[in-house]
Amino acid sequence: MGFFSFFFKKKDNSALEKKDNSTKSISDKINKDNFLEKNSNDNEKNSNYKILNSINSFQNTTNIDDNILKEINYKWESTEEIIDSIISETTSNNQNDVKLIEYIVNLIDSEKIELPILPVVATKIIALSYNTKADFNEYQQIIQSDPVIALKVLKLANSPYYKGLKDVTVLSVAISRIGLDGLRELVLAISIKSKIFQHTFYKEAISNIWKHSLLSSLIASRFANYINIQPTEGYTTALLHDVGQIVVYHSVQEYRKFYKISGWPDSTFVGRVSASIHMKLSAFILNNWNFSILQIDAVRVHHIPPAPLSSNLQKLIFLSVQIAYILLKNSFDSDNSILINFLEKNGINLSEEEFNKILLKIRGEFESIESIF
Ligand SMILES: [Fe+2]
């Protein structure tokens, strides 16, 4: 089944009966066609749920402003609501865009959507990162369990940014050279890139989304402390904020089969559809992965400027996403005063010297992680 597996529970499909004829016919056909073979990896799914549930119970003990929670009302809307809202928001009148949007939303409603599974290594690392007493040995055990990740950790320790006088060949030495903070981020990045950010056809588009996600996550991690967010929480949320886009690109394969389209639709078209639907899809996926309501909410609106009552996590993700766009567009040669002002507007006050120091670190980490793939 490749990188994705299904993990939906069967639900009552009576809601589908209320749809208008055009959406109903797609839903009916999707339900009848058994082109998406179910291949639920229950063991992996259950162990992920267990780990993430323990994270959530930890997070629920932290202080969250009641006013912010009142503002958050995450739910997956009905097909009609989603299609209506997406079509009213989108500037495109292209009927093909609408057709693909309808197809994807109906796949979700009829529980046939193919969703990525959060890799086991990633869930273990996330869980461990909330344990302040966890030491190098525990991280080393997780890394050793996956030879691909272990090799990449060694490679990173020998990359120009981390390189010492001698090449490292022993994992424990590599881990201490990178340091725990960098290590957590690296292992999460490797496992998520290798298991989720892949596509047989839209390689360039997926690679661009990956670069943007990785840079956003490093930015979120480095600025998290300034806005009272745990760096790991900021990092993980930012790393996954665009995961809905990956699902859109993967749905195209089934969309082609369904409508008997030969060849692949061009990536500009898929990108346009993705732009209009991916925030809702990312939130839907993080909800399925049992992430906290604050993380789901931050992802659900990551392109929308935060309001005064927005959570700090939402502010952090929004600004990290924006800064990542600017830095990638300008190859890191941006006018820093604009970025410093932008941070200030979002509640983070830094001198130019402090900002430059952080940016240098982010750039070093970004380029070294990029170099090992
Ligand atoms: Fe996005």
Distinct small molecules: fe (ii) ion
Structural Rg: 21 Å
Elements, N to C (H/E)? EHHHHHEHHHHHHHHHHHHH
CATH architecture of the largest domain: Orthogonal Bundle
Which assembly state applies to the chains in this document?
single chain
Mean pLDDT over the residues: 80
**Helix proportion range:** 55-70%
Query: How many distinct beta strands?
Result: 2
What class, by secondary structure content?
mainly alpha
Q: How many structural domains?
A: 2
- Give the terminus-to-terminus CA distance: 23 Å
CATH fold topology of the largest domain: Hypothetical protein af1432
Q: Largest beta sheet: what is the strand line-up?
A: 1-2
Our count of helices gives 18
The best one-word shape is globular
What does this structure look like?
65% of the residues lie in helices and 1% in strands. It is globular. The protein folds into 2 domains: 210 residues, Hypothetical protein af1432; 82 residues, no CATH class. It starts with a strand and ends with a helix. Helix 5 runs parallel beside helix 14. A two-stranded antiparallel sheet has the order 1-2. The longest helix is centred in the C-terminal third of the chain and has 22 residues. By secondary structure, the chain is mainly alpha-helical. The protein has 18 helices and 2 strands. Fe (ii) ion binds next to loops.
Give me a quick take on this structure.
The protein is mainly alpha-helical. The chain is 65% helix and 1% strand. It contains 18 helices and 2 strands.
Please tag this protein with its features.
single chain, 373 residues, mainly alpha, Hypothetical protein af1432, 2 domains, 18 helices, 2 strands, 1% strand, globular, disordered N terminus, binds fe (ii) ion
